């Protein structure tokens, strides 16, 4: 499958019809879940620290954890929204540990409007073909998704990834397990990095795409960090016009992205891999 050019990344819109379908259904999907969540009345409390106790009693946090995670929630005067969010999350398969992890990553999610912000994201992911457990994985890996607009942010990012990876299946696979897959920095890093690899390094786009299919975060490195990888590869004796150059960049990326690389990348490693004909 031919790799997408930078131009095609910007112009493909295959997910947009799906979004339009979701938007037309917005007024009626998940009504039962939302209604159920809304039946829990918000408890108004004069205590400015009531959310600390709430997080302990409703989510199972320790007092110290609750004190930390309640700080972004200090403006709340009622538990109405947190009640609705927790009830909805539980109805969608989140267990206690999953809810605690999500809140620890994004406490502000408890301030979301379930009907307007949360439920549409779940429905959109379901319409993409994700199962209940897949959706949980996708949200845990990309917790910021709950605060992103489907049309303005989520769809364009998925379009870019589909163009680069070459298939919807790979997009969904990485959406479930790759952190920052829908990060706000995707466009800011992806475009200049693709241009740099193509125009300055002379690396064919198919070769770039082949790496991204297994390591999509490679293209999300800071541009200056990617340039550093290129310099390091050249210092190891690998010229930019070598067919091995992209593979060495991938190996350097993996080494720097790992807390404990299994082995250092050295000139001897390059010699051994080259001898195998890769």
Explain this structure:
One of its GO terms (biological process) is DNA-templated transcription termination. GO terms for molecular function: nucleic acid binding. The chain has 278 residues and is mostly helical. The chain folds into 2 domains: 15-148, no CATH class; 186-275, no CATH class. Helix content is 61%, strand content 0%. Helix 2 crosses helix 8 (114-127) and helix 3 crosses helix 6 (80-91). The radius of gyration is 22 Å and the shape is elongated. Residues 1-13, 23-41 and 259-278 have low confidence and may be disordered.
Descriptive terms for the model:
61% helix, disordered C terminus, 278 residues, mainly alpha
Overall mean pLDDT: 81
- Strand proportion, as a percent range, falls in under 5%
Question: What is the ordering of alpha helices and beta strands?
Answer: HHHHHHHHHHHHHHHH
Alpha-carbon distance between the two ends: 20 Å
Q: How would you characterize the largest beta sheet?
A: none
Helical residue percent band: 55-70%
Number of domains: 2
State the low-pLDDT regions, or none.
Answer: 1-13, 23-41, 259-278
Compute the gyration radius: what is it?
Answer: 22 Å
What is the number of strand segments? 0
Number of distinct helices: 16
| Shape summary | elongated
Q: What structural class do you assign from the helix and strand content?
A: mainly alpha
